[in-house]
Specification:
By secondary structure, the chain is mainly alpha-helical. 62% of the residues lie in helices and 4% in strands.
């Protein structure tokens, strides 16, 4: 295969990887935002499964870009070294420093310790200071807090016919309770 065809193939695969990586990133950010993992799906995949797809696309994209650098290594080396002149060493040194800086910034998050705040310390398998939002369903709250949805229904004075898939915000508007009442019900169950 001629070098031009190899370059075209590698560049086409890299561009496709970039498009797919961007698409899945936008999908995760805007179509399946954080908190939608248990209830929303797109093409049969939930947020977490799309996150796995996004990860593997990034692995392929990174591999293709590494191959791209290998194929173009002579050109890259020529750009950094250039014609021999009194500034050749400076240009090569700046290029090496630039690459090392970029690599250091890229891998730095992998070496930073994970921080856990005191409010996120788990008690009895569930977070003590649970973030209860109107976008949560009763089932999501049950899974996050360990408090049975039926208990929450009775404490909030809601009928047994209420769907456990309905969001707390909708229930709040329909039945006139406050989210603070939900927090109180969770606390009373835990005591």
């Amino acid at each position: 295969m001629k070098q031009t065809r190899i370059n075209c193939l590698i560049d086409s695969i890299a561009f496709a990887g970039f498009v797919f990586l961007t698409t899945t990133g936008v999908l995760l950010r805007y179509l399946l935002p954080p908190g939608s993992g248990r209830t929303s799906t797109l093409m049969g995949l939930d947020r977490h499964e799309w996150g796995t797809v996004h990860f593997w696309i990034s692995v392929v994209f990174f591999s293709v870009l590494a191959l791209h650098l290998v194929v173009h290594w002579r050109w890259i080396a020529g750009v950094f070294s250039g014609r021999a002149s009194e500034n050749s060493g400076l240009r090569l040194g700046l290029g090496v420093v630039g690459i090392l800086t970029l690599v250091a910034i890229g891998v730095a998050p992998l070496f930073v310790p994970i921080e856990t705040s005191e409010t996120q310390v788990r008690q009895g398998g569930h977070s003590e200071n649970l973030d209860i939002r109107g976008a949560m369903t009763l089932l999501e709250l049950e899974q996050a807090s360990g408090v049975p949805a039926d208990y929450l229904l009775s404490k909030l004075g809601l009928p047994d016919t209420v769907s456990k898939e309905e969001k707390l915000g909708q229930l709040k508007r329909k039945y006139g309770f406050e989210l603070s009442s939900v927090r109180d019900a969770v606390k009373s169950y835990r005591q």
